[in-house]
Write a structure and sequence with these properties.
The protein contains 6 helices and 16 strands. It is of the alpha+beta class and 359 residues long. The strands form 4 sheets. An 8-stranded antiparallel barrel has the order 2-3-4-5-6-7-8-11. The chain starts with a helix and ends with a strand.
Length: 359
């Protein structure tokens, strides 16, 4: 049975691994819940074992898979230990369970980025129960074999996720508990006004059934996660792309800034120096303002350059485009251009500039 539970858990994790989510740190997606209800022997369902109450802590691993740590106590009932004598204990038994939970809605229908209003979860796990046998008429019966049980628990959770933030869940939780041993009761009513100790052969089986049915109802609070919500949030592919783009752009921007800081433009007399953006041959408003300071009757020579980041042939073409842009703008104003020389990336002059020298 443990192997079956493990296989189901591994398969659920595999189904959920294809998506990426935020809110998956260790302290994310924890919840706490309380529950109360009744249990009964499935063999004698008309003789209930009594009330049950519990508390559970749950850790969400993925939107499909979660782990639950559960503690429960069983309360005394007239028909609990034997059919005639009532136990003197208020709490008859204490149980702890470690359960694996699989969200069937997210498994088969896919996670939509937030919990649904209604969800069904399958639950299964292993537990340990400690019984407290009654004592009366001065007779105390104890047996380590009878006081302890290892159990398997299987059930369904019918969950209603409430509120805009889905921080609260109301659940109805039917379950079946299978005991790993079938032992006799430690006591039974003899019919003569006294209790006697059962042995293995006299059939005192008022509480010796292998299967117990249980139904509880409870409320759960989901603590806020590091992503600001109370649940997993899916990482959209476009968000991943943006992060990558920023990571690539920042180093390039730093390199460019270093190059600009080292630029020392030469003195061109009465001419001007026009600067261009990286990999651009378009005149900015600042560049046009500088060119407007040149008298329309002047004759000029243009020398264009490129920074050394690109290939040699490409830089040559880029510097030529920059010369052509400056030449066209000046000629439109009436300035005579005696020469326009494209140098590409060349020595100390290898910057994103065009020098306009007045002859």
């Amino acid at each position: 049975m443990k192997k079956i539970t493990l296989v189901i858990a591994m398969f659920a994790m595999a189904m959920a691994s294809s998506a990426q989510y935020t809110g998956h740190k260790f302290f994310d997606n924890w919840s706490i819940g309380v529950e109360g209800g009744v249990s009964t022997n499935l063999h004698d369902w008309d003789k209930p074992n009594g009330g049950v109450a519990g508390i559970n802590f749950t850790k969400g691993i993925t939107p499909v898979l979660s782990l639950e740590f559960q503690g429960q106590v069983g309360f005394n009932d007239d028909a609990n230990w034997n059919w005639a004598v009532k136990s003197a204990n208020v709490v008859d038994n204490v149980s702890v369970y470690a359960n694996t939970k699989i969200n069937l809605m997210n498994w088969f229908g896919g996670y939509k980025g937030a919990p649904r209003l209604f969800e069904i979860q399958a639950r299964g796990g292993v537990g340990y129960t400690r019984f407290f046998w009654p004592s009366f008429d001065g007779i105390t019966t104890e047996s380590s074999n009878d006081l302890n049980r290892c159990n398997f628990k299987f059930g369904l959770d019918f969950d209603f996720n409430l509120g805009k933030q889905k921080a609260w869940t109301i659940s109805v939780r039917p379950a079946v508990i299978l005991k790993t041993s079938r032992d006799n009761d430690p006591v039974r009513y003899s019919g003569e006004g006294m209790a006697v100790v059962c042995d293995k052969g006299n059939g005192c089986l008022a509480y010796g059934h292998n299967a117990i049915g249980q139904i509880t109802a409870g409320v759960t609070y989901h603590f806020k996660t590091s992503n600001g919500t109370h649940y997993f949030t899916e990482v959209k592919p476009v968000e991943v792309t943006k992060v990558v783009e920023k990571t690539v752009e920042k180093p390039v921007e730093k390199v460019v800034e270093k190059v600009v800081e080292k630029v020392v433009t030469k003195n061109v007399g009465g001419g001007v120096t026009v600067e261009f953006a990286q990999n651009k041959a378009t005149l900015s408003n600042t560049a046009k303002a500088k060119l407007n300071t040149i008298d329309k009757s002047a004759t000029v020579v243009i020398d264009g350059y490129a920074s050394p980041e690109g290939a040699k042939a490409y830089n040559q073409k880029l510097s030529q485009r920059r010369c052509d842009a400056v030449k066209a703008y000046l000629e439109d104003r009436g300035v005579k251009v005696a020469g326009a020389n494209a140098h590409g990336a060349e020595g100390a002059e290898s910057q994103r500039v065009v020098y306009v020298t007045i002859k």
